[in-house]
Amino acid sequence: MSAEQTVNFTVRKMERCVCASFVYGEDSFNSPYFTVYFIVNNSGIIAVYDKSTPSGTATAGGGEVYLDQLKSAGMELKKGQDKYEVLAYIYDELGRIGEKLQKEGRPLLDSDISKLLTKLGSRFKA
Questions:
Q1: Edge-to-edge strands of the sheet including 7-13?
Q2: This prediction's pTM
Q3: What 8-state DSSP symbol labels residue 119?
Q4: Within a 13 Å sphere around the CA of 46, how many CA atoms are in the beta-carbon half?
Q5: What would the pLDDT profile of 28-69 be if each residue is shown by its tens digit?
Q6: C-alpha distances out from residue 116 to 22, 81, 119, Å
């Protein structure tokens, strides 16, 4: 019988940045994890995300081999858009996503970030 996986997440808001980490398991050392940074200023949004997932192969010692990926995306904001409104929206959305992942018991996927970027684009993009 397999143990139920937990999803741990933290979301932090700073002056011009929102950062969120999602770990599928007890810690990020031997579990898939996803960290995303949204940097916002008056001209646009940059999203940088760091992801580590199991490759499906084992090391000589029997441990799992993880693949690291680093991706980015960006968009211009509408002229006159309040960056603090954008930051608050991203913060709320990342919290909502984390709660959904906990409920579903699954790790964050690239498609989750793509959906969020699409929502941001439809709401704030120039």
A1: 7-13, 17-24, 33-40, 44-58, 64-76
A2: 0.81
A3: H
A4: 9
A5: 556 777 889 999 998 899 999 888 877 777 666 766 777 788
A6: 15, 18, 5
Rounded-to-integer distance, Cα 86 and Cα 16, Å: 10
H or E element in which residue 60 lies: none
Q: What is the DSSP string of 76-115?
A: EBPTT--HHHHHHHHHHHHHHHHHHHHHHT----HHHHHH
| HEC secondary structure over 11-51 | EEECCCEEEEEEEECCCCCCCCEEEEEEEECCCEEEEEEEE
Nearest by Cα to 88 from 36, 40, 46 = 40
